Amino acid sequence: MISPRKVSMEELNRLSADEYLLAPKHSFVFVLDDIRSLNNVGSVFRTSDAFRAEKIYLCGLTGTPPHRDITKTALGADTTVAWEHVLDVLGLVARLKAEGYTVVALEQAEGSTKLQNFTPQLNQKYAFVLGNEVFGVNEEVVSQADICLEIPQFGTKHSLNVSVSAGIVAWDYIAKVLKS
């Protein structure tokens, strides 16, 4: 039996912050709409860095860097991942569609696509919309989305933490795109 050994930070061979800024990004963005928890915001920054998202849009009352609670969980990703604060999420959705993005609301809704059945198109850009921790994605945004994507759940709870959902969707997207 092989005994595994933890890899050192040097062996991980991660990009420096400067290298990251110049590195090509994957064709997706996150849209955070009215996210109350700054720790969730920081966690999405960290996830966005890990999967090289193009950008994060911080909408409505979602907090923005610099803030100690965002920085605490972002671990520096708040300085490397591109972001923009936008008050009007519906205006942003229209803008992203005009820029060629497929807008994907992460929400449990009638006619939603289960994550395992989602097949991203190779040369398509995606905007994944994550909603408020209590109310989810705004109903008007759901109605404007091109796709409603649902992460299947098998326990007693009806939702996942917003930053956990971001991580699941980013990994699923990247795994499927790299496999193509």
% residues in beta strands: 15-25%
The CATH superfamily is identified as SPOUT methyltransferase, trefoil knot domain
Spatial extent as radius of gyration = 16 Å
The CATH class: Alpha Beta
Main beta-sheet strand count, sense and barrel state: 7 strands, parallel
Span between termini: 34 Å
Instruction: Calculate the mean pLDDT score and round it.
Output: 95
Helix content: 25-40%
Tally the structural domains: 1
Judging by the overall fold, what is the CATH architecture? 3-Layer(aba) Sandwich
Provide an overview of this structure:
With 180 residues, the chain is α/β, with parallel strands linked by helices. The chain has one domain (23-179): SPOUT methyltransferase, trefoil knot domain (Alpha/beta knot). The chain has eight helices and seven strands; from the N terminus they run ααβαβααβαβββαβα. The protein has helices at 9-12, 17-22, 38-50, 68-74, 77-80, 89-98, 139-144, 162-179, and strands at residues 26-33, 53-59, 83-86, 101-106, 113-114, 125-130, 147-150. It has a seven-stranded parallel sheet with strand order 3-2-1-6-4-7-5, sandwiched between helices. Strand 1, helix 3 (38-50) and strand 2 form a beta-alpha-beta unit. The longest helix has 18 residues, at 162-179. It is globular.
Show the helix and strand layout.
Layout (H helix, E strand, L loop, with lengths): L8 H4 L4 H6 L3 E8 L4 H13 L2 E7 L8 H7 L2 H4 L2 E4 L2 H10 L2 E6 L6 E2 L10 E6 L8 H6 L2 E4 L11 H18 L1
Parallel strand pairs: 1-2, 1-6, 2-3, 4-6, 4-7, 5-7
Helix pairs in contact: 3-4, 3-8
Keywords: Methyltransferase, Transferase
Pfam families: SpoU_methylase
InterPro entries: Alpha/beta_knot_MTases, rRNA_MeTrfase_TrmH, SpoU_MeTrfase, tRNA_m1G_MTases_N
